Amino acid sequence: MAITRAARLGVLVAAAALSGCGQGQQQQSAATPPAVTVANPVQRTVVDQDEYVGRFAAVESVEIRSRLSGYLSEIHFIDGQMVKKGDLLFTIDRRPFQIVLEQMRANLAQARANLAFTEADLQRGQQLLGNKTITEQAYDQRTQAKRVAEAAVAAQEAMVHSAELDLEQYSELRSPIDGRIGDRRVAVGNLITGGAGGATTLLATIVSVDPIRFEFSFDEASYLRYVRFATSSQDVASLHGNVPVTLKLIDEKDFPHQGKIDFVDNVIDRSSGTIRGRAVFDNAEGIFTPGMFGRIRVPGSPPYTALLVPDAAIGTEQVRKFVLVVDDGNVVRQKYVTLGQIDDGLRVVKDGLAATDRVIVNGLMRARPGQKVTPQQEGAPTKPKGPNEAKAG
After folding, report:
1. What is the domain-level CATH number for residue 162?
2. pLDDT of 242
3. Do 39 and 55 share a domain, yes or no?
4. What is the mean pLDDT of residues 100-122?
5. DSSP H helical ranges for the chain
6. Which of 139, 271, 339, 363 shows the smallest number of beta carbons within 10 Å?
7. Within 13 A of 269's CA, how many CA atoms are on the CB side?
8. What is the pTM (predicted TM-score) of this model?
9. Does 386 reside within a domain?
10. Is 318 left (phi over 0), alpha (psi -120 to 50) or beta?
11. 294 plus 310 within the same structural domain
12. What would the pLDDT profile of 154-211 be if each residue is shown by its tens digit?
């Protein structure tokens, strides 16, 4: 019985000692404010960028169709290859056109022979008219016959020239532009229909590759904003000029491709309320293809001085964004901010922050509004660190 009481007494003493130790640690912890890292916002000249989705389109696109009807005898390219202007693509069976040319040349020779006869007949008529051997009416008839023969020769010369074109030019189809050709639509041996009508046979298509256009649409409000910026500030070029733009493809994170806007349409589409814009990009490597999607950045404001902070320093409260700052008394204060774009890894803060504010950039989990902290001053990093790097605004 005495042992049991002694054991209970020891347990109570030990518990009292542990309780006193815990209270001491809590008091010591409460007496030391948590350490956080603070930094002033970075000041930098930036330009707001608007982003739009669009598609690439070829500067030049040509459908290869024949002027002549006939049987296709040869194909001189590989499907999908690059071709140069003037390269031979298709050959139509030339033999029928060679026969037609020979016929036209024979008709021309006949017309020239007839002309020679009428010229000689007219010369004899002049002598006979002087001797009063023939009447003036007979002489006029010989003059008319010579003129008809001259017209026949001119007509036959034109027919020969047309037949030569058919044989030497139109029976061979050559590329009118530099670019990439698609697949052949007709195989050798097929009869193709030529001419200027809508029933002509499509043989292939060629699209230019370098440079290439990028077409996109933007809304009426953006168009008005661009126009007002261009008219009120000399720092912003007109959209109808060579405005520099950047572009990225669907598998790229940044906007590495540089181009220029070369055209904005003159009409806003009534059904969609948008207007069409177009930019031009170099495509020496051939990575861009007509029909490909991309995202383009267009300057949306004149240059201005902005405050920037790391994305990791920004918190979210429902739909509002905020940052935690440390005042002169080392007390944490919450400031609601209006965010802008990402610029070189930092988030633009358009409103709600001062250049002298000490923003908590590290240790946010240990800081609460109204709580006193121990700030450690550091320069703001040029790029955000950690998992919050890609945090959306």
Report:
1. 1.10.287.470
2. 75
3. no
4. 93
5. 2-31, 95-130, 136-165, 220-232
6. 271
7. 12
8. 0.70
9. yes
10. left
11. no
12. 999 999 999 999 999 999 999 999 999 999 999 999 999 998 767 899 999 999 999 9
CA–CA distance from 240 to each of 65, 230, 264, 275, 298 (Å)? Answer: 35, 10, 6, 13, 13
β 374-377/35-39 pair status: parallel
Give the pLDDT of residue 217. Answer: 94
Using 50, 70 and 90 to split pLDDT, how confident is the model at 388? Answer: very low
Residues 40, 55: one domain?
no
Same domain for 382 and 341, yes or no, is yes
Kindly provide the b/e burial profile for residues 48-79, where b requires at least 16 CB atoms within 10 angstroms of the residue's own CB. bbbebebebebbeebebbbebebebeebebee
Q: Give the domain-ending residue among 242, 268, 299.
A: 299
Report if residue 11 sits inside a domain: no
Boundary (domain end) residue, out of 282, 299, 316: 299
Q: Do 292 and 215 belong together in one domain?
A: yes
Angle between helices 136-165 and 95-130 (to 10 degrees): 160
Pair (344, 286) in one structural domain: no
Q: Are residues 158 and 217 in the same domain?
A: no
- At residue 210, φ and ψ (nearest 5 deg) are -135, 115
Give tens-digit pLDDT for 14-59: 444 445 555 544 444 456 888 999 999 999 898 888 999 999 999 9
- Residue 266's region, left for phi above 0, alpha for psi from -120 to 50, else beta, is alpha
Distances (CA, A) of 200 to 100, 183, 186, 219: 22, 18, 12, 40
Task: Name residues whose C-beta falls within 8 Å of residue 72's C-beta, 6 or more positions apart in sequence.
Answer: 90, 91, 92, 93, 186, 187, 188, 189, 190, 191, 192, 203
Q: Is residue 143 part of a domain?
A: yes
Q: How far apart are the C-alpha atoms of 209 and 179, rounded to whole Å? A: 5
**Residue 317: Cβ-neighbour burial (10 angstroms; 0-12, 13-18, 19+):** exposed
CATH number of domain containing 283 = 2.40.30.170
Residue 385: CB partners within 8 Å, gap ≥ 6?
310, 312
Question: Is the model's pLDDT at 236 over the cut of 50?
Answer: no
* Sequence-separated (6 or more) residues with CB below 8 Å from residue 8: none
367: CATH: 2.40.420.20
Residue type, 130: G
Question: Looking at the structure, do residues 275 and 336 belong to the same domain, yes or no?
Answer: no
Cα 110 from Cα 288, distance rounded (Å): 59
Domain count, the chain: 3
> In which domain, by residue range, is 108 found?
94-170
CA distance 325 to 333: 5
